[in-house]
């Protein structure tokens, strides 16, 4: 498992706390989206368990470890109840028990309140580690009971890392990805198409063809890139064929953000229909403004 250079200070700090027996029972790892918060959580969990850091935690069977991820779009109360049962057990192999919660901002209200009870009275030798890119979305009462370890998003360091990986990108593309190095690396390695030519082609492509790159990849990340690309356009980095007024584009951006949130946070959201609506509106917006349609 790779250790990214921007994670190293956090890992060293936690290593020092382990060696001095000053490790808190509740930890929150905050790392911007696209900077590897899942990888950091896995590394920290293995560090606390004092086992080999090359393991894949989502396939790691250990009696003193629990790895909790969202069930669909949320983390549910039943998952936290199982964590509570685990927390009161005695460690079997390691010196401590570790429960790692990925994307803790997706805890639904019942799950968050159930977790709070464990954080308020943590059992001995039990450590709950939360990871989230969205610290502000956690309940204030949960935030107040966790010691926070925040990754510094060093953009210069990220660009150097990308260049070392053979990924030399423009400043505009870097901004489109929210200056997130791992999002860029994953996109390039998967052969994902760039969003600017995709937008330019929308008026001429069929809806099915237009949907394909979004539905095959990370929908939430794609919509975030689309949003940032519109903002870059409004700032002067034009999208070919986009002639909508500033007011119309701002209105479209608001809807784009709303749909992104629906897809990210609701198991009942029909992502395909919502994204179809955005594509149709984009084409209509530019057609009304003078762009040529099919």
Helices and strands, with pairings:
Layout: H1 8-19, E1 26-30, H2 37-49, E2 65-68, H3 77-87, E3 97-102, H4 109-120, E4 126-132, H5 140-144, E5 147-150, H6 155-164, H7 171-176, H8 181-189, H9 195-201, H10 207-215, H11 219-234, H12 246-265, H13 271-288
Parallel strand pairs: 1-4, 1-5, 2-3, 3-4
How is this structure best summarized?
By secondary structure, the protein is of the alpha/beta class. It contains 13 helices and 5 strands.
Give a structural overview:
- There is one protein chain.
- This protein has 294 residues and is an alpha/beta fold.
- The chain folds into 2 domains: 5-153, P-loop containing nucleotide triphosphate hydrolases (Rossmann fold, 3-Layer(aba) Sandwich), CATH 3.40.50.300; 192-288, Up-down Bundle (Zinc Finger, Delta Prime, domain 3), CATH 1.20.272.
- It has 13 helices and 5 strands.
- The chain has helices at residues 8-19, 37-49, 77-87, 109-120, 140-144, 155-164, 171-176, 181-189, 195-201, 207-215, 219-234, 246-265, 271-288; strands spanning 26-30, 65-68, 97-102, 126-132, 147-150.
- Strands 2-3-4-1-5 form a 5-stranded parallel sheet, with helices on both faces.
- Strand 3, helix 4 and strand 4 (126-132) form a beta-alpha-beta unit.
- Helix 12 runs antiparallel to helix 13 (271-288).
- The longest helix is centred in the last third of the chain and has 20 residues, at 246-265.
- It starts with 7 loop residues before the first helix and ends in a 6-residue tail after the last helix.
- The model is unreliable at 289-294 (pLDDT under 50).
């Amino acid at each position: 498992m790779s250790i990214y250079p921007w994670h190293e200070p956090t890992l060293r700090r936690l290593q020092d706390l382990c060696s001095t027996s000053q490790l808190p029972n509740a930890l929150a790892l905050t790392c911007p989206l696209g900077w590897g918060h899942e990888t950091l959580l896995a590394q920290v969990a293995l560090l606390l368990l004092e086992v080999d850091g090359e393991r894949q935690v989502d396939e790691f069977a250990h009696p003193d470890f629990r790895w909790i991820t969202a069930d669909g779009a949320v983390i549910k109360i039943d998952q936290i109840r199982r964590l509570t049962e685990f927390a009161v057990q005695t460690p079997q192999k390691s010196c401590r028990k570790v429960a790692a919660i990925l994307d803790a901002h997706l805890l639904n209200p019942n799950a968050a309140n159930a977790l709070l009870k464990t954080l308020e009275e943590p059992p001995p030798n039990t450590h709950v580690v939360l990871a989230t890119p969205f610290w502000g979305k956690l309940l204030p009462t949960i935030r107040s009971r966790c010691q926070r370890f925040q990754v510094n998003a060093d953009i210069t360091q990220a660009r150097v890392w990308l260049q070392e990986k053979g990924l030399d990108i423009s400043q505009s593309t870097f901004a489109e990805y929210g200056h997130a190095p791992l999002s860029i690396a994953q996109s390039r390695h998967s052969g994902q198409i760039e969003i600017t030519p995709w937008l330019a082609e929308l008026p001429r492509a069929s809806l099915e063809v237009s949907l394909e790159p979004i539905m095959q990849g990370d929908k939430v990340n794609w919509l975030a890139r689309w949003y940032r690309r519109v903002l870059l356009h409004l700032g002067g980095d034009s999208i070919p064929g986009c002639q909508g007024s500033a007011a119309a584009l701002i209105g479209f951006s608001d809807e784009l953000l709303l749909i992104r949130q629906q897809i990210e946070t609701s198991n009942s959201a029909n992502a395909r229909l919502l994204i179809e609506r955005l594509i149709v509106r984009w084409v209509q917006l530019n057609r009304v403004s003078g762009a040529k349609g099919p």
